[in-house]
Amino acid sequence: MAEQIRTAVVGAGYFGRFHANHYSKNPDAKLVAVVDADAGRAKAVADEFGAEAVTDHRQILDRVDAVSIAVPTPLHFEVARELIAAGLHVLIEKPITDTVESAKAITALAEERGTVLQVGHIERYSAAYRVISEKIDRPLYLEGYRIAPWKTRGVEVDVILDLMIHDIDMIIGLVGAPVTKVDAVGTGVMGRKIDIANARINFESGCVANVTASRVSYKTERRLRVFAQSNYLNCDLGERKIFGYGLRGDPMTQGLAAITTETIDIPQEDSLANEIASFLDCIKTGKKPFVDGHAGSEALRVAGLINESIDAQLQKVQSWLKPGDVLAAAAKG
Ligand SMILES: NC(=O)c1ccc[n+]([C@@H]2O[C@H](COP(=O)([O-])OP(=O)(O)OC[C@H]3O[C@@H](n4cnc5c(N)ncnc54)[C@H](O)[C@@H]3O)[C@@H](O)[C@H]2O)c1
């Protein structure tokens, strides 16, 4: 067997634990260390997957080849910068960082150091994304809908960076054209950070996407609808089902018989296992990551445009909101 890639996970919270699990199971990797500022958490996850517990990522710089970063988003940049500067390959959880400048800086640093920098936009490694991109060539319109109940994890960022960024990145990947204009609305509900938002995203190709995200819903739903000139997909990403409609004849003479329908069961695959296998493959072969630092930076740039548009909308509604209203608080930032 070829030599295993020595790996570590920095940030052993909710999502970092999943990364540790996959490194421990992947034959191309050896999970050497689990790093968490909270010693108890580092030990619990390290013990579970047979690795060493460490409390500071600087202690592993010369002992591993590749690292997953799953610390809270505001810390991504500092941790990534130090790991990449030390010549390590990095898989950084989404969103890449919390500013476009810092995202571009680590992307440039990885290019300079010749290391792999992959961003954990997990939906792009899903079977659903693969099926959709095989079925739809040039989308004209996409509708992303992602809602989830309130939770206290992830609230260090707004819903755009917490949830909507998944659809932003996936849609940019499917459209394959630059974003030219964004119109958005949103508000904080639980606090000052935006918890519910809708954005209309215009692409240079003429395609339009309408994206909604909420983290204050009673239920969980993840849907994507896509239409192109002669086909339409209605994808329930949560239930792993795609309903497809297309044309096989002349609707003018054949009526409804010209329309084809199909139900596709999205294959049961673990998207994070795919993402980590792809990261390890890039390290072994020198391939460019499917979602690299440039893609991560672009998703973040578009998230920034959405936030700017929401800020402008909140300034307008301030004039008619009652004092003390949550919306008014959100508008003041
Ligand atoms: N791809 C996805 O679907 C997905 C889902 C959830 C979270 N995430 C991302 O994963 C990241 C972590 O989110 P989470 O929900 O696991 O958060 P979490 O709060 O559960 O875990 C974060 C962990 O990082 C540790 N930590 C904080 N500072 C540290 C430091 N300097 N060094 C080492 N450890 C440190 C904390 O002690 C904690 O254990 C976020 O960027 C989030 O956006 C991605």
Automatic annotation (TrEMBL):
Residues 5-121 form the Gfo/Idh/MocA-like oxidoreductase N-terminal domain. GO terms for molecular function: nucleotide binding. It comes from the Bacteria. Residues 157-227 form the GFO/IDH/MocA-like oxidoreductase domain. PANTHER family: BILIVERDIN REDUCTASE A (PTHR43377:SF1). This is Uncharacterized protein. It comes from Methyloceanibacter marginalis.
